[in-house]
Design goal:
The protein contains three helices and two strands, in the order αββαα. The chain is rod-shaped and about 95 Å long. The termini are far apart. The protein has a domain of 56 residues. By secondary structure, it is an all-alpha fold. Helices cover 30% and strands 3% of the residues. It has a two-stranded antiparallel ribbon with strand order 1-2.
């Protein structure tokens, strides 16, 4: 029995002394010893293209298409299915007819009014749902 306890004590001591071979996760002393910091060469850093705000989702508003996000028949398959079921569909431009600014530019004015009523700001013009300039 005494031999068993001695073996357990030696084994425990061995684990404490040797540890698992890993460095501590954090230096609690606050200094930077034993820490390496990666430094990137500016030539190797890829150039990031600035974001185009018109492509960003504006939260409740789909900026690329100029309609409320939840009702955007060009982004949401569910919304498109609902518009098709109601018979509100523009086959030529593959979007809800009530959202097709290409066929009916007056719808754009309605969308602008809806956006301004909600935000108090002018609507950012969509780039993907606009009539072609003549």
């Amino acid at each position: 029995m005494k031999k068993l306890w001695t073996s357990i004590a030696l084994l425990s001591g061995l684990f404490v002394v040797v540890g698992c071979g890993q460095k501590p996760a954090e230096n609690t002393g606050g200094d930077k010893r034993d820490k390496e910091v990666a430094k990137a060469d500016p030539k190797d850093t890829p150039k990031v293209k600035p974001k185009d705000d018109s492509e960003e989702d504006g939260g409740w508003w789909c900026r690329p298409h100029g309609v409320p996000e939840d009702d955007c028949s060009m982004c949401s398959a569910k919304a498109a299915k609902e518009f098709r079921a109601k018979g509100d569909w523009c086959d030529k431009h593959e979007r809800a007819k009530s959202q097709c600014f290409i066929c009916d530019p007056s719808l754009l004015e309605k969308a602008k009014a809806q956006y301004k009523a909600k935000t108090g700001e002018e609507m950012p013009l969509p780039k993907k749902n606009m009539p072609e300039k003549k």
